Amino acid sequence: MVTLQPGEALKLHITPVDVFFYVLEGRGIVEIGDEREEISTDTLTVSPARIPHRLLNESDTIFRFLVVKTPRPTQTTHIL
Predict the structure, then answer these.
(1) Maximum Cα–Cα distance for the chain, whole Å?
(2) Is 59 exposed, middle or buried (0-12, 13-18, 19+ CB in 10 A)?
(3) What digits encode the pLDDT tens for the residues 3-62?
């Protein structure tokens, strides 16, 4: 589980496996490749393996989400 406070963001990175994000609370921005979309509570988003992605909290409330990587990664994530 990840919690981003207002104004916080994950660094742009690439994972070697598919990643699923499920929003538990609040709303935020997900960037996957060249796409950018606002997501909110009860949203499930998929980020394919080896595509740059990050999540940002541009709101004034907490943005909390689960992160599921599948299959279990055997390589490291690359921060860009």
Answers:
(1) 36
(2) middle
(3) 999 999 999 999 999 999 999 999 999 999 999 999 999 999 999 999 999 999 999 999
| DSSP letter, residue 50 | T
Q: Which two tokens stand for residue 13?
A: 């990175």
**pTM score of the predicted model:** 0.90
Identity of the residue numbered 44: L
Distances (CA, A) of 62 to 17, 36, 40, 47, 80: 27, 19, 11, 22, 25
Token pair for 41: 């509570």
C-beta of residue 57 within 8 angstroms of C-beta of residue 8: yes
